[in-house]
Write a structure and sequence with these properties.
With 932 residues, the protein is mainly beta. The protein folds into two domains: 108 residues, Immunoglobulin-like, CATH 2.60.40; 715 residues, Maltoporin, Chain A (Beta Barrel), CATH 2.40.170. The protein is built from six helices and 50 strands. The N terminus is likely disordered.
């Protein structure tokens, strides 16, 4: 039965299909094979994309490694085939397909697009001297953090990442390893998508609370932005302003960093990078909704870095995630753009133990960091107004939770008196335990609010077109943390004369900082005959409002005038090609306000152990201490002021561009920790003045004989005593891409820097405690010196980069020849002789030739060898780095780099001593990017 059923079914199917074959025309499928070649060298292009269209039907494909694109099962008819490839002009060809067909297409190089591909920093054509680093340059550089981008600046060099310590930025500096000049990095402002990254509320400091704090090199308090925390994966473009910024930017002295992140539609992008010290992962995606004119971007990155792969104690782990949205709409010829950003970053370090320096059973260090920020921007553009161009509102709120927990096993070396009083005066004290476990917690909760409103107008007056900008911004900074917390009976370290010079205090007790600023600027341009004049003339007013009037800085207005100008000379024809010359000049004053920690420092505690009577009978042991509390607040502290001027030239000829800038900067009022001296009196009780064998009860201080002592002791105060002079010459030469040399481009940049680091205020120094005066007393005089530890630093370097961009192969290669031609250093001259001295009674006298003869005052004269101030020159340091990037079908990208693939550092002689320099090992890494 079943067999007959299938027989009838097959017969019926045959009749139906036969009927259809006679009633419908026959459709034949065809194949199309397209060979894609470069018109220059006839080589196949393996990264071309093709779109085949007939009516509403579209077919897409990509070329293989032989430059072949294949389509199968195509109906006959007329098609348009669109071939596109980066670096080549688009080709659209019409074909009639009636049979299997083969087609050869030769793509013409797109010279303009090819020339625009830059894998190094390029000097901007803005009025302010700045460098622009785009996405392509960052991708080829393969950075681990924002720090790596500084290699691309004039004067920059490649360095191995050091992500286990705070990364400071130092623009136009040779650099000096001294915290006394951290005001240079503190005075560099970072803006992320137009929002200020404020660090003034960061107070995570453990100095003076532990002998060797585990986070001494980690903390960024009073040092500016920690560049380790900034991931580069989601960045679209960076502009680093080294010169004189617009009046729009304030509370700075060194420069401005403007960071723009990706916005709009983008495919799924993932990045995996590994090098000798770190591993990182990134994933991101951008969405676009054309109908509602909205965009949506989200990304996540993770970094794990170790200074030494075998040491878990020194590590850094960072997580960054961001959600960014944008909405555009029009109403009555007015365009509104609303942008919103939500950012979160954290570290995920667990408790760690120092295997070499700690007691492994107890000692640990734990750090937690959570940072969340929300920002909004509303931009309004008016297309129906000839005067009013735009209106802009920005707001951001940022909250950070920082927590450090350091546990240490403490073992006192001898009988130690516990000095932990929170009140000044005389008091009896306890003895510390011979050993115990101490725990120090540091909790910081800085909150930053940033508000800004600005508007732009356009006017024409005579020959001049004016672009006017007016704005105001407000910054609120407050730390709600508990501060440094520990058990007063279990201090975290001891000194020979007692315990710590500080005590716990709550950050939340410190008043908030309110910074209010206004600015106005006119960017004008005029065309006079064949000359073009450009200028930006503006001023910024800054003030800290709502402060206690005891401060000199309180509610006082500080004005920063700034001007940048450029003169575009008429073009001159040389060999039938235009030569363009632009000359620029600028001058500006820049003001940087102190941080919360500098305005409200912790109090200084000085404990004098007047009596330490340690009897064999614990019931008779007696200790007596006198405590002084000194307020280290400098009510006369003022903002830092930097005076900067520069001149520049920009020469363009036949796609060759040369820029040269000479600059001079002087900062005379940098924040500097300076030793101040107070004379303290106390009693020193003689423990031998009573008979230990006859006492029957616990003695009191009245039972002992004593002598009165008065000595100078130091405490630290933040002053405006730092001085930094920067001068130098920056240059960049960039050539066009040469087709004959596989699209090679040559970029040569470098700089000559000269920096002088010194003090601008007199320095106090006390006589060494090992010296006893004629009365047998210690520390009875303080010398006042005009000279202190000043330093001269100078260097001259050149970076020559050869990069080759082969779009038909999806290949980018570059070699960087980085030569530090010389570096010079010396200590600034010091006479060693004070100009005045202060005695124990607080009287100040001039230091004369008679003073030099006094046996009590002669120790104030400090002897120096002439060799201490000789110039030391280090000769050439040449390094060659190599980078390569290979793209596959616009879907994958593999990159690798090798720094110091070659190194030349000859030995040299210094003071008749041969200095042998070692060749550093190459540093390399690679990364993989996937686009879906």
């Amino acid at each position: 039965m079943i067999k007959h059923f299938f027989t009838h079914l097959l017969f019926f199917t045959y009749i139906v299909t036969s009927f259809n074959s006679f009633s419908q025309p026959v459709q034949t499928a065809h194949a199309l094979k397209v060979f894609i070649f470069s018109s220059v060298d006839k080589t196949p292009i393996d990264v071309a994309s093709a779109e085949l269209q007939m009516g509403n039907k579209k077919y897409r494909s990509q070329s293989n490694q032989y430059g072949i694109i294949q389509f199968a099962n195509l109906p006959a008819g007329k098609y348009f085939i669109n071939i596109s490839c980066i670096g080549f002009k688009q080709d659209i060809t019409e074909i009639s397909l009636s049979k299997d067909q083969t087609l050869n297409i030769f793509l013409q190089p797109d010279e303009q697009k090819l020339q625009q591909v830059t894998i190094t920093a390029s000097e901007s054509k803005n009025l302010s001297t700045s460098s622009i680093i785009d996405k392509k340059a960052m991708s080829h550089l393969q950075p681990s953090s924002f720090t790596d981008l500084l290699e691309l600046l004039p004067g920059g060099r490649s360095i191995d990442p050091k992500l286990t310590q705070m990364n400071q930025i130092k623009l136009r500096e040779v650099g000096l390893s001294s915290s006394q000049y951290d005001f240079s990095s503190l005075g560099t402002s970072f803006y992320m998508d137009g929002m200020l990254m404020n660090t003034s509320g960061n107070m995570q400091i453990s100095t003076n609370y532990t002998t060797s704090a585990a986070n001494d090199n980690i903390t960024a308090a009073n040092r500016g932005v920690d560049m380790r925390t900034i991931s580069t994966d989601q960045i679209e473009k960076v502009e680093i302003i080294r010169g004189i910024p617009s009046a729009e930017y304030g509370d700075l002295i060194s420069g401005v960093i403007l960071i723009e992140r990706k916005k709009g539609e983008s495919p799924y992008l993932s990045r995996f990078k590994a090098d000798g010290f770190s591993k990182s992962i990134y994933i991101g995606k951008g969405f676009s909704f054309p109908k509602s004119r909205q965009t949506f971007n989200i990304d996540l990155s993770y970094l794990n870095s170790k200074q030494n792969p075998t040491n878990n104690f020194l590590s850094y782990k960072r997580v960054n995630t961001s959600l960014r949205t944008s909405k555009v709409w029009n109403e009555r010829k007015t365009t509104y753009t609303l942008s919103n950003n939500l950012d979160y970053s954290t570290n995920i370090d667990n408790k760690r133990v120092d295997p070499e320096n700690g007691y492994a059973l107890t000692d640990s260090y734990n750090s937690k960091y959570h940072d969340i920020g929300l920002s909004n921007e509303l931009n309004v553009k008016f297309s129906n107004s000839n005067v009013w161009k735009s209106l802009n509102f920005k707001s951001s709120i940022n909250y950070t939770y920082s927590f450090v927990d350091e546990v240490k096993f403490i073992q006192t070396k001898s009988v130690s008196v516990l000095t932990n009083s929170l009140e000044a005066g005389d008091h009896y004290a306890k003895y510390a335990l011979p050993n115990y476990v101490s725990e120090l917690e540091i909790e910081g909760k800085p909150l930053n609010i940033y508000l800004k409103a600005s508007t732009a107008l356009r006017l024409k007056h005579g020959l001049f077109n004016h672009n006017l900008a007016f704005g105001s911004d407000y910054r609120y900074t407050k730390n709600f943390g508990k501060g440094q917390v520990y058990d007063l009976d279990k201090p975290t370290y001891y000194t020979q004369t007692g315990t710590m010079s500080v005590r716990p205090r709550a950050f939340s007790d410190i008043p908030a900082m309110n910074n209010l600023s206004f600015y106005a600027e006119d960017k004008l341009i005029a065309k006079i005959d064949k000359h073009i004049l450009e200028a930006a003339i503006g001023a910024r007013a800054n003030a800290l409002i709502g402060m206690n009037n005891s401060y000199t800085i309180a509610n006082k207005l500080y004005i920063d005038p700034r001007i940048n100008s450029r003169w575009h000379l008429p073009k001159v024809m040389v060999n039938e090609k235009p030569l363009l010359l632009t000359i620029g000049a600028g001058y500006g004053i820049h003001t940087k306000f102190p941080t919360l920690d500098q305005l409200y420092p912790t109090k200084n505690y000085k404990d004098f152990i007047q009596l330490n009577y340690y009897h064999n009978n614990p019931e008779y042991r007696t200790a007596h201490v006198k405590t002084y509390i000194t307020d280290a607040t400098n009510f006369n502290l003022k903002p830092i002021t930097n005076n900067k001027w520069e001149i520049s030239s920009d020469i363009n000829y036949n796609r060759y561009r040369l820029t040269v800038t000479y600059f001079n900067e002087i900062t005379n009022s940098g924040f500097r920790n300076q030793s101040e001296y107070h004379n303290f009196n106390y009693r020193l009780y003689d423990i031998n003045s009573i008979d230990a064998t006859t006492i029957t009860q616990k003695p009191v201080v009245e039972d002992f004989q004593y002598k009165e002592l008065n000595e100078f002791y130091a405490y630290t105060m933040v002053t405006n005593g730092g001085k930094l002079i920067k001068k130098g010459l920056e240059y960049t030469l960039q050539t066009p891409r040469f087709e004959q040399l596989y699209n090679a481009r040559f970029t040569i940049n470098g700089a000559w820097f000269q920096n002088i680091y010194t003090n601008s205020m007199p320095v106090n120094k006390v006589i060494n405690s090992n010296f006893l005066d004629s009365k047998g007393l210690q520390r009875q005089y303080v010398g006042l010196y005009n000279d202190d530890d000043g330093y001269y630093r100078s260097s001259f370097n050149t970076n020559a980069v050869v990069d080759t961009y082969l779009p038909q192969l999806g290949l980018t290669l570059s070699s960087a020849f980085q030569s530090l031609w010389f570096s010079k250093r010396k200590n600034q001259w010091k006479s060693g002789t004070p100009y005045a001295y202060k005695d124990i009674n607080g009287n100040i006298y001039p230091f004369t030739s008679e003073s030099e003869k006094s046996a009590d005052l002669k120790p104030l004269i400090q002897d120096y060898s002439r060799t201490d101030f000789e110039m030391r020159t280090v000769p050439i340091d040449l390094r060659i780095n190599f980078k390569a990037t290979k793209e596959f079908k616009n879907k994958a990208e593999i990159s690798m780099f090798v720094n110091r693939i070659f190194m030349y550092v000859p030995n040299y002689r210094e003071n008749n001593i041969i200095i042998i320099r070692e060749i550093e090992a190459p540093y390399f890494g690679m990364e993989l990017k996937l686009t879906l």
